[in-house]
Sequence to fold (371 residues):
Amino acid sequence: MRNGGVHVSGVIIHEWMESVGGGERVVDALAASFPDAPIITPWDDVPDRYAPGRVRQSWLARTPLRRHKAASIPFLLEWWRRLPAVDADWMLCCTHLFAHHARMLPPERDVPKFVYTHSPARYIWEPEIDKRGDGRLARLAAAPLRSIDRRRAREPEKIAANSRFVAERIARCWDRESTVIYPPVDLSVFPGGDDELTPDELTVLDSLPTGYLLGASRFVPYKRLDLAIRAGAAADLPVVIAGDGPERERLVALAAQHPGRVTFVARPSNELLRALYRRAAVFFFGPIEDFGIMPVEAMAAGTPVVGNAVGGAAETVQDGATGALFRSTDAAELRRAVETAIAVDEEACRARARLFDGSTFGARIVEWMGV
Fold:
């Protein structure tokens, strides 16, 4: 059905709504840039994020499939092609899986589609990077899914990539050119101060060792928080690991091999995370990431970053100037990278972070779309 008979400028399409993540920050910025655009997503796990009625969910939101993303893929492939009609001039899809397949009914209306790409689905196209695609069933499904995915990638009017690294992947996987528009990083809240913290958060912060190496993210395998623990051990630094997720048990077991050297901070608030950045000697970012907002945030707090030489971190972290890039995971290389990073100037870190200030993101998107 139509959007209550009301014409809107466009529709924002998102893979699914989670509590934290770079994708959700992009959607927040787009929602602010296009305040009348409804947001369509299969399910919304943060129902209070936007004004009531702005987010529209699929029938999948009422089923257990919302908790089992891999199992939901066959249903999502069909649902994306049959979105309810909205009286809008365009669709803007934020994709890291199949949101760019979106098509509104009736299909003959042919609403122009723009795609902001965090990545073509890594576990379909490059399972060597994302091990979620490395299982037998995933590899069997990959070939037909790639064929469908490449076909759907011909539909957008324009494609934007969140980094040069992803633009190269788009060219390789989809055979499409793209425009690099880095995702928004909110630097207005940095560096912040301890007066932002609750008494309980101050207690947590004051209990931490000085001069620690910080690793922070969702506890999932490809985020490589295990490397943060190993790097701290190699450089003889205490380690703080912030976050939570399914890898917790494995990370705790790894930390137990270094008694008294690793501290976990579960699910820090944004304010506490900023404080963790400020007090860290170095922030360690191990994954081959498409862009990576957290290294920019750490630099905005004046903290140097050790990042992977492959991936988006290599576009934000300046090797030897605002941190260091590691090229292997052996102990000597991790130690070298940490020692190099600790020696850099904190003001150089802040200056580098300012180049990725997200305050102009919305204007760049509007200009790119030409709407």
About this structure: The longest strand covers residues 213-218.
